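FW: tagging you since you asked about this chain on Friday. Here's the raw sequence from the shared folder, copied in full. Didn't touch anything.
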Amino acid sequence: PPTLPLPQVFPPSRSVTTKKKTGWKLNNDDFLRYHGGCFGDVLQSCAIGNAEALLWAGLCYSCGWGVKKDPENARNYLSKSSEVGHSVAIGFCLQEGIGRNKDIESSLEHYQKAKDTHAAAAYLLGLCYLEGIGVKEDFTQAADLFKSAALKGKEFVPALVSLGNCYFNGDGVPKDHKKAFECYKNAAIYDFPPALNYLGECYRDGSGVEPNNQLTIKNFTRAAAEYHVDAQHNLGEYYIEVQKDIPRGIALLEKAADQGYAPAQFSLGECYYNGTGGTKDYKIAVKLFERAAKQKDVDAINVLGVCYWEGEGVKQSYKQAFRHFEEAAELGLAVAQYSVGECYGSGRGVDQSDEKAVTWYKKAEQQGDVRGATSLAICYAEGRGVERDESKALMLFQKAADLGDMVAQQRLATLYAEGH
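HL: got it, structure written out here
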């Protein structure tokens, strides 16, 4: 049997204090200010062929800011802006392959030429450096470009948000949650949905500011009303976990899940798995986990492994459990790395191998997984898959015991009683 039982609980909820902030956050310093009538103004300018307005209308439809996402309209407006020679639109179309063959190198050339005069070009180029698109990843260069974009002309809202993300993550600048909060707060003045969502997360978790229940709900609600799916998900979880308003929370999770948002599909699956709201249905939970897993949601992939291990909502299969644990482990999830180690240690779902078990326990332990530390300690204590080493075993048992692991505490007490 496995050295320790496989985890029967879900991984901790995603938190603003650990989640790395990424993603496209674009806006327009001349046309799109996220206040009353702004999108209508953009469309009026589009009607007379304004290249700048055509660019931002396309980006709004592409990203879902102040309007529902519409890929067809996005392509239409971006292509028109590109056709009339807007350099940034040409660069974006080349980057995304909209109406033109995808050509990252040419896209970067357009951004480079326009970055000193156009905030959006500096911003898009910053995203390329941040994500390593066509250039070597360079967080410092990305942060500098976001700063530059934020100061061009009027306050450039998306650059403020991405600069806030840099401060939050410590990408290219010293990590500083207070500065991140100030960036989000300044961008939220313009009702920019990503900024409102991040601001809500800060108030929720006390990141850079004192926790505030009312401001958490207020900012999530404002962002959710602007079709921001992450905010809909955050607000749904907040109503369930904090406000204890289960029906309202589930309704918001369903709204976000129906739009294909993987984290919301996973959270809604949790509700059906645990019976939150009164309906416990493993089969529905599994379907939601599968939808999220197809989008490489690592938590959903891992929990599908638990479902197959236990036969909850699916036919019991150790092989299928191992396949899902391994996929999640390869994506870096510590609890899944521990589970892969347990599969190798027990020979369930895969050929038994103490050596491979130790490899995966080490990976889990290095990420702070307490079960991985305890299992690795047992291997060192008993010489399973690794040369016996009582000093390493003691160190790992102590580490896991200090974190509250009862198995480690018991083994540690036994070793001390034996005079070790």
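FW: The radius of gyration is 25 Å.
HL: agreed, and Residues 229-243 form the longest helix (15 residues).
FW: great, closing this out.
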